[in-house]
Amino acid sequence: MKHLFHNNHSEILRALTKGRALLAFDFDGTLAPIVKDRGSAKMRPETAASFKALCRKFPCAVISGRGLSDLKPRLQGARVKYVIGNHGIEPSPEQTRYRRDMREALGTLKRALADLVGVDIEDKKYSLAIHYRRSPNKRSARQQIKKAIEALPVDVRLVTGKLVLNVVPEGAPHKGDALKALCKAERARACLYVGDDVTDEDVFRLTDLPGLIKLRIGASRSGAADYYLRDQRAIDALLAKLLDLGDKAAGP
């Protein structure tokens, strides 16, 4: 994994100006910093301003684990062409079935985890997020949560994250599936995806999407991205670089 802004690696971004391109971003930890209270997550003013400008120059997408009703207001009026929620599930023609399965899983998990201190189950309709950031014993909490998930009466897929375990319906589309569908709809010849977490590895592991630039926030020895930025604050430098490339491609 190579640092994007070292040794002229950022020159690879020029491919985004040589034909139809799609720029896609995760939200938490990418466009917005990770915060203890997930309800207060938002883009910094400079990030929001740059992202709004970028959406006027390129087709952009945000693909997040948040539900759409939670995600859209956090985009602060940016004219994002594609907004995808619930790890790639929302919107989907199978939402009714996914909601039924998640409702059953939610009831079971609430009973199984009722006595765990500092554990919070977030119901996102089509997926569940079990947060244990406030647990006094995070390792034990994680083990007990995983055990409860394994005992669920419905088929699910476990997606790990930063002090959170996500439960999604088995067979539901993931972020990689969502990005491939968007690139097809956009007829994109090049694509940039920026993410920061394990849930984004479904994109980073893609091998059948030509022209995909895989960029991770924070280096990872086990991650499948090709490039990385040092930390979340570096998103502002990336957006500035993309805006500059867009201006140069447009000409005088």
List keywords for this structure.
single chain, 252 residues, alpha/beta, Rossmann fold, Alpha-Beta Plaits, 2 domains, four-stranded antiparallel sheet, 19% strand, globular
Can you characterise this structure?
- The protein has 252 residues and is α/β, with parallel strands linked by helices.
- The chain has two domains: 168 residues, HAD superfamily/HAD-like (Rossmann fold), CATH 3.40.50; 74 residues, Alpha-Beta Plaits (2-Layer Sandwich).
- The chain is built from seven helices and eleven strands.
- The strands form two sheets. Strands 1-11-10-9-2-3-4 form a seven-stranded parallel beta sheet. It has a four-stranded antiparallel beta sheet with strand order 5-6-8-7, covered by helices on one side.
- Strand 7 and strand 8 form a beta hairpin.
- Helix 1 packs parallel to helix 7.
- The model has no long low-confidence stretch (mean pLDDT 94).
